[in-house]
Amino acid sequence: MATEFQTFNEDLSLTSQTECEDSARAILAKLRPEWTSSEIKFEYFSVGITNKIFSAGFGTEHVIFRVFGHNTSKVIDRENEVTAWRQLAKHGFAAPLYGKFNNGLICGFLEGKSLKIEQMRDSRFHMNIAKRIAQLHASVPTNGKTLVFEKMQEFLKQLDPKFEDATKQEFFVTNFPQNLAAEIEKVEKLVIKSKEPVAFCHNDLLVHNIVFNGETKRIEFIDYEYAFPNYALYDIANHFCEYAGVEGTPDYTKCLTKDEKWLFINDYLHFKDSKNHCDVRMKAMYKHLPLFEATAHLFWAIWALVQAQNSTIDFDYLTYAHARYEQYEKRFQKYIGSVNHH
Predict the structure, then answer these.
(1) What is the rounded CA–CA span in Å between residue 54 and residue 60?
(2) Is Ribosomal protein a UniProt keyword of this protein (predicted)?
(3) Rounded to whole angstroms, how far apart are CA atoms 34 and 1?
(4) Same fold across 10-107 and 113-341
(5) In CATH, which superfamily holds the domain spanning 10-107?
(6) Nearest Cα to 92, choosing from 80, 75, 108, 116?
(7) What is the C-alpha separation between 117 and 131, in angstroms, rounded?
């Protein structure tokens, strides 16, 4: 098995399946020369809202191709993705990465199935998810600096305040503040003040990125496009926001209750550092949680605004951005209210 990372000068088509598979075979002829080209079987899984994902299999071995969507480099730092992925693979948190082509990556296959939203809401999974997040945060080293606010500012630079479509422009002007940069700065000041610890984070733990292996009963995470050092509590808060689902308009009434969130944080701390697990730490994390939920909502709201102008995928990013922005305001006000109350 070749393990050295390889680069291939091929573009995989997002529109033509035949052309896409021809290019994939050309790559596999070099990556897996022992495979018989005519016997390679392809299976498509695309569930992400930015990529095309499929597997190529020969005999019992499979590799995964991830083809990047058009214009996704505006919201995803591809160099960072490869660096983060290789670091995670080294520590046992990601499938091996075999190589890259002009518009995507080839990696190993993780056994298991992505969770469904009903499963993610099942309390039996909460502990396993909390445990895996804790293991990730405890295992992968970082320099202790987070990039989350820098990333938001980078997204903002990609956003044109003028939408080409008049209806979209009106919606944007009506539902979003003129100065989004000021919102980022406002949140950043409070987050820095919280002094929450930084860890290596996944930053995108929605249902499709959580894989459960029924045989080993283990939870694994996939898709490291947004993985970078961040506040550990951001990773948890962002995960909590995703119980609302991603298909169509998110339903935030489906998010975990206060008690469920408390239990999740309790499990997380128990698995991360049982010796220093105490009520004081629990209460501090719980107090700061709405602020970090607000931060995650703001991140994805701005991300979705950029996608609304650039993505070729049939998804209503503008309505999604609005749903996230409304939640940002709600969670932020909740945090401010609770701080002023004490």
Answers:
(1) 16
(2) no
(3) 10
(4) no
(5) Phosphorylase Kinase; domain 1 (3.30.200.20)
(6) 108
(7) 19
Task: Please give the Cα distance from 304 to 220 (Å, whole number).
Answer: 26
Q: Which CATH number fits domain 113-341: 3.40.50.2300, 3.90.1200.10, 3.40.630.30, 3.40.50.970?
A: 3.90.1200.10
For position 2, what pLDDT does the model report?
Answer: 46
**CA–CA separation, 312 and 236 (whole Å):** 30
Strands 6-8 and 97-101, by their bridges, are parallel
Dihedral, 302, 306, 308, 314 alpha carbons, nearest 10: -100
175-180 CB contacts, 8 Å cutoff, 24+ apart: 175/322, 175/325, 176/305, 176/321, 176/322, 176/325, 180/156, 180/302
Q: Measured between alpha carbons, how far is residue 261 from residues 33, 124, 239, 321 in Å?
A: 49, 14, 11, 24
Summarised one tens digit per residue, pLDDT across range 231-241 is 999 999 999 99
CA distance 239 to 262: 14
Those residues with Cβ within 8 angstroms of residue 1's Cβ, 6 or more apart along the chain or in another chain: none
Domain boundaries, the chain: 10-107, 113-341
